[in-house]
Amino acid sequence: MIRTTPVRRAALVAAALAALAVSCATTPKPVAPAGGRATAAATAAEAPEAPESAGPTAAPDGPDALPDDATRSPAPTQDPYAPESGEKVRDAFATLQATLDDSCATDCSYFLGRVHKELQELDMAMKADPKGPGHFPEPIARMAKLNEKLAGDASYPNLKEHQKELIGTRDFINTWMQDHPDDYR
């Protein structure tokens, strides 16, 4: 019987060294901090500069160039912390309903901020719905009144000052949507 232990050991060492060489040869992506964004320096160093517009670039010249060889530049990035505008009405309404059993009893700042955020997302979803904003006239009108009173200030002191209107708008929209079940299913 022939001993193969040194051969196996050599193969394992070679495989481990190859794995280390591969992992050391790649450039790591920047690690996003707890806030969710990578540092600007790390992303700028990694990403090539993109043109200002997202339109097509000039077609390449040469004998092998085809008319469809023009590349599209990437679209401008959006703020990842902005409210989700592609949300469906039923999903936005479900998250608003999740606030119905909450109150200012434990953390009023969080509660009022959450109700405000959920109302804004539902308003955007209703306006972007394929049925059109005319399908949700009363909730959109009620949100317009609330937004007029808040005057773009979503700070806790302003939300606390308008707490009655904020909660009243949430409850009104909840009742309206319950009477129109086809709108959120």
Outline type: elongated
Oligomer: single chain
- Structural category: mainly alpha
Q: What fraction of the residues are assigned to beta strands by DSSP? A: under 5%
SSE pattern, N- to C-terminal: HHHHHHH
Largest sheet composition: none
Q: What's the rounded overall pLDDT mean?
A: 73
Enumerate how many helices there are, as a single number.
7
N- to C-terminal distance: 73 Å
User: Any low-confidence stretches, pLDDT <50, length ≥5?
Assistant: 35-57, 71-76, 78-83
Radius of gyration: 27 Å
Helix percentage: 40-55%
Number of strands: 0
Question: Which descriptors apply to this entry?
Answer:
185 residues, mainly alpha, 0% strand, elongated
Write the layout of secondary structure elements.
Elements: H1 5-25, H2 40-46, H3 89-97, H4 104-128, H5 137-150, H6 156-161, H7 163-178
Helix pairs in contact: 3-4, 4-7, 5-7
Description of the molecule:
Helix content is 53%, strand content 0%. With 185 residues, the chain is an all-alpha fold. It is elongated, with a radius of gyration of 27 Å. Mean pLDDT is 73; it is low at 35-57, 71-76 and 78-83.
